[in-house]
Amino acid sequence: QVQLVESGGGLVQSGGSLRLSCTASGFIFNIYVMGWYRQAPGKQRELVATMSKGGSTNYADSAKGRFTISRDNVKNTAYLQMNSLKPEDPADYSCNAVIQTSSARPPEPYWGRGTQVTVSS
User: Which residues have a Cβ under 8 Å from the Cβ of 117 and sit 6 or more positions away?
Assistant: First the structure.
């Protein structure tokens, strides 16, 4: 049993900042890449940022220079620091992690239920 739980979403003014957190719990043999995705109403889910266990990062063009992903591997937690938020940023933000639960099985992706981000003028 593995769960991902996000927190930190809410309402923020345009140009403001917000920090999201995602914690994995349950039976975990190993965690590889962790990342953040977002989905706005009527649109498909899209990548925001990912980070490997070793620290390599990958960002969407819209996130570069404004968002920063980080990890605490001891706490099994990923963070997304969002600065200079824009009107196009509001969405449901979901955490993703590739997790191996047993040495006998390959790693599989897991998803959190998401946290809402809203930007006001």
Answer: 9, 10, 12, 18, 20, 38, 82, 85, 89, 90, 91, 92, 93
The alpha carbon of residue 14 and the mean position of all alpha carbons in its chain are separated, in whole angstroms, by 21
Q: Does residue 121 have a pLDDT over 90?
A: no
Model pLDDT for residues 78-101, shown as the tens digit of each residue: 999 999 999 989 999 999 999 999
pLDDT digit string, tens, across residues 22-69: 999 999 999 999 999 999 999 999 999 999 999 999 999 999 999 999
- Whole-angstrom distance, CA of residue 39 vs CA of residue 47: 9
- Cα–Cα distances in angstroms (integers) from residue 46 to residues 81, 86, 88, 91, 103, in the given order: 17, 17, 13, 10, 30
- Contact (Cβ atoms closer than 8 angstroms) between residue 100 and residue 109: no
